[in-house]
Write a structure and sequence with these properties.
The chain has about 300 residues and is an alpha/beta fold. It has 13 helices and seven strands. Helix 8 crosses helix 11, helix 8 packs across helix 12 (about 250-265) and helix 9 packs antiparallel against helix 10.
């Protein structure tokens, strides 16, 4: 099958290579790297109707702008696929906008990271039956055996991927906290690399994430000395919590995991300062003064 891939970052480039290895003809457009096309118009011209064009770019404004520009060059019957981490409500809106122009829109949640090229990408597709069926050869090549499903109507693919990433937050935080307790132990000098290694076999907490943690200890050292404990988030955890609130569903683990990421970005917590000041005021508990070398005037 012939496909146009828009975006050749870590995921898009790996997906393009896997598709080509699987016998598909993939035309490409990315203004930052060598591509088969220098514009969306040229990319569309390199494909035959009905065209299938896959967006593999960051969610948000870049996707919005590219989607709008793409609608100006595609024709009725063409299929636009968003494989990024877009908000599912944006995908529902894009589906409606595309449908008004006679264009099909499919949202595909993609999981697998940089390892997807080798082992395959888990794919969660949302949209109407006909366009999803049309691109199924692409989806089956990208995914490992039993790693693809048409999960529902417009937006469903990105909704399921959003929840997937929310769960991922909780799993990662549980590992992080458990290993911190072991790291802080005053009773034992534990080899965390070794422990992560044996937990991969037979343990009820074994997982691919644990295998990746073991690999990180292998690469960075058992104390992760070279890595700063600053954890970003790309939005899906926030969206998962917002959706849970709207549905009156408690998600305390995912919420705590997201807040832990926020806390990781603070050099000094003002909330902790408030707590220390209050304990000093009501109980006379000692407070620790800021070291002179660390003190600095308020920049505001």
């Amino acid at each position: 099958m012939k496909l146009g891939m828009i975006g050749l970052g870590r995921m898009g480039s790996g997906m393009t290579e896997r598709l080509r290895d699987g016998g598909h003809e993939v035309m490409t457009y990315d203004p930052h790297v060598e591509s088969t096309a220098d514009s969306l118009e040229e990319l569309a011209g390199q494909l035959e109707a009905p065209r299938a064009l896959w967006l593999m770019i960051p969610a948000g404004e870049i996707t919005e702008q590219t989607f709008e520009a793409l609608l100006e060059v595609v024709e009725p019957g063409d299929i636009v696929i968003d494989g990024g981490n877009s908000n599912f409500r944006d995908s529902i809106r894009h589906y409606t906008t595309a449908k008004d122009k006679g264009v099909h829109f499919v949202d595909v949640g993609v999981s697998g990271g940089v390892w997807g090229l080798e082992v395959g990408f888990c794919l969660m597709a949302g949209g109407d039956d006909d366009p999803v069926s049309h691109i199924e050869p692409i989806l089956e090549t990208l995914a490992p055996p039993d790693g693809y499903a048409h999960v529902g109507g417009p937006g469903a693919g990105h909704f399921v991927k959003m929840i997937h990433n929310g769960i991922e937050y909780g799993l990662m935080q549980a590992y992080a906290e458990g290993f911190e307790v072991m790291h802080s132990s005053k009773e034992y000098d534990l080899d965390l690399h070794e422990i992560a290694g044996i937990w991969r076999y037979g343990s009820v907490v074994r997982s691919w994430l644990l295998e990746l943690l073991h690999a990180a200890f292998e690469k960075e050292g058992g104390q992760l000395e070279k890595i700063r404990g600053y954890v970003e988030d790309s939005g899906e955890g926030r969206w998962t919590i917002a959706e849970a609130i709207s549905e009156d569903v408690p998600v305390p683990v995912i919420s705590a995991a997201l807040f832990a990421r926020f806390a990781s970005r603070q050099d000094e917590s003002f909330a902790a300062k408030v707590n220390a000041a209050l304990r000093n005021q009501f109980g006379g508990h000692a407070v620790r003064a800021v070291e002179a070398a660390q003190a600095s005037p308020d920049p505001r």
